[in-house]
Amino acid sequence: MSTAVERPFPYKLIATDLDGTLLRSDESVSQRTRDAVAAATAAGAAHIVVTGRAVPWTRHILDDLGYEGLAVCGQGAQVYHAGEHRLLTSVTLDRQLAGLALSKVEAEIGPLALAASRDGIDGEVLVGPGYQVQEGPLPVRFFEDPAELWSAPLNKVYLQHPEYDDDALAAITRQVVGSLVDVVMAGAGVVELLPLGLSKATGLSLAARRLGCKAADTIAFGDMPNDIPMFGWAEHGVAMANAHDELKAVAHEITASNEDDGIAVVLEELLQGR
Known about the structure:
Layout: E1 13-16, H1 18-22, H2 31-42, E2 46-50, H3 59-65, E3 70-73, E4 78-81, E5 86-90, H4 95-109, E6 113-118, E7 125-127, E8 141-142, H5 146-149, E9 154-160, H6 166-177, E10 181-187, E11 190-195, H7 200-210, E12 218-222, H8 228-233, E13 236-239, H9 245-248, E14 253-254, H10 262-271
Parallel strand pairs: 1-2, 1-12, 2-3, 7-8, 12-13, 13-14
Antiparallel strand pairs: 3-4, 4-5, 6-7, 6-9, 9-11, 10-11
């Protein structure tokens, strides 16, 4: 495979989501994708990870990848310097406002199962009764007393409902409390409440400014509806073949799946000048 640069690489910044995008289902990155990203950065682009995961759930992956740049974590709430293991900026959720939002949603559709991500580089993920936790290598802490959920600053609150699927729950929640908090669907079983106005786009714009890049310099890759604001900000948005239909609808381009090196397919073509 040739990655000879026939013209200058057309983007200064490559923004990639992690789950379902850069990562395969086993949380690995293929050698082909590693090589394509390395060739693009050698050609002058910067690579930045933009993920819904908070820093504690992201940094082990970045360390495994040998990634030392900036990462936007927590749906845009956190800008993290992976090389220095340092949190540069962080936005927290207004807990009083979040509590009000939850009460309004529960008044509409009944009890919710809840979890939350605490702020900070070592912030815990708290999990309440009935919340179905996805399997993974990182620990969570279970709680019974609802007051514990609100006892320390949070980046986000996760919602599940025994009857509504993710799309329906996100849509209803957005309709009921969209003027109080932002609501995103970030993956299977992952509906989140965020500070109003926060998105991957806001976090990415902050990080891009630190790197001397602008929206017009950026190509972005993603797979879920929480990537829609990032696609709206970036010059070019590329959805994976496995992406949610809502993201595909706003993408400039659709590539192969995360299992089939979709990022590499696009970067290789750009590197070859096509």
